[in-house]
Amino acid sequence: MRQGWRWFGPDANVTLDEVRQVGATDVVSALHEVPIGEVWTRAAVEARRDLIETTPPGRAPLRWSVVESIPIPDAVKRTGGAARAEIDGWIASLESVARAGIGIVCYNFMPVVDWCRTELDHVTDTGATAMRFDFETFAAFELHILRRPGAERDYAPEEQARARARFEAMGEGEIAALTRNIASALPGSTTEPMTIPGFRDKLAEYRDVDAARLRRHLVEFLEAVTPAAEAFGVKLTLHPDDPPRPLFGLPRVASTEKDYAALFDAVPSSANGMCYCTGSLGVRADNDLPRIARRFASRIHFAHLRATRREADPRSFHESAHLEGDVDMVAVLRELVAEDGKRGRSETIVFRSDHGHRMLDDLHKAVTPGYPATGRMRGLAELRGILHALGHPPERPAA
């Protein structure tokens, strides 16, 4: 297995030398500056690859091995195969990535919003901070800030009462921060930032898209792009929904073992793979993570390893330290190691320590929410320790 590190590009607050220092060998990145739907040119991809892979004297080499992500335009999610121009543009970006020698592409199919949190700096019992999704706060946002038409049908009367009390206790600053967290697109987001009126308008465009239709649109997208991926030698990896359940009245179709099984049955192409994210899948108690890894082992080319902790209301959760949440990380890695041992070196699984607590000096400087250096370094060290204990140490940086 190869140690990856998500890097947000030349302006990131973590440098490539710092990526080397944490022991990572592989960079997970994207052309985040390119607008959603615009084609990535081969020249732009190769320039970013060369920046990552040109090794200064005396430094360990890095390789850009995973693209996370090429955003899927909204029209594809709403209309599926009818969005032919957008799909062709996505394939053109995929070709640019392949020509640059990058063999794994992560993507998601979450409509309107992708990963969603109500707090970015929830204070834990250690004094470090973590990202959190609080169901009551989310309900207050949806019912009283967004005011989504028909939202009250999704909440019991007592839930509506608690949401109103929560909203009425918020000050203007908290309302503004909550709105930014949910509507303004978190780092690495593949959806557009929105104003509240724009948010409502976007939701209205999905009024006729239920789970069956969204799944059909995903299948149509994959039927169009997997032949190209096969020809280019690229593995596509679908990231789970985060959190893995419907939000804002919108369907989610990559939340469970059953969802992935249906997708792989519908599009059996070897290029149709999975980004195995323990944090996203682990939010649901009914997702048996080791079993999912075992069942879909051959489809896993990229793994996000992190843990979440469900709270008293299991619809609420926070990001835990990597070995302290609801995820049995040892059991998960045992399954990944078993699969990785069957593969050749060129097909080994790339993993990264996903998210991390904001801690130590990161508490006192600007960091990318969810991606502070020290918390992720702690997680990577813990994951590396498990792999050593399992007799499968990850690839080490070259001298």
TrEMBL record:
Pathway stated in the Swiss-Prot or TrEMBL entry? Carbohydrate metabolism; pentose and glucuronate interconversion
Give the source's domain of life in one word. Answer: Bacteria
Reactions listed under catalytic activity: D-mannonate = 2-dehydro-3-deoxy-D-gluconate + H2O
Q: Name one GO biological process term.
A: D-glucuronate catabolic process
| Coiled-coil ranges per UniProt | none
Q: Name one Pfam family in it.
A: UxuA
The reply to whether Magnesium figures as a keyword in the UniProt entry is no
List required co-factors.
Fe(2+); Mn(2+)
Entry's EC annotation: 4.2.1.8
Broad enzyme group: lyase
**Assigned keywords, A-Z:** Iron, Lyase, Manganese
Q: Does the keyword Ribosomal protein apply?
A: no
Q: Which GO terms of the molecular function aspect are on file?
A: ferrous iron binding; manganese ion binding; mannonate dehydratase activity
Write out the similarity annotation.
Belongs to the mannonate dehydratase family.
What biological function has been recorded for the protein in this entry?
Catalyzes the dehydration of D-mannonate.
Q: Which PANTHER family match?
A: MANNONATE DEHYDRATASE
Instruction: Return the protein name.
Output: Mannonate dehydratase
- Which organism's genome codes for this protein? Aureimonas flava
Q: Which gene encodes it?
A: uxuA
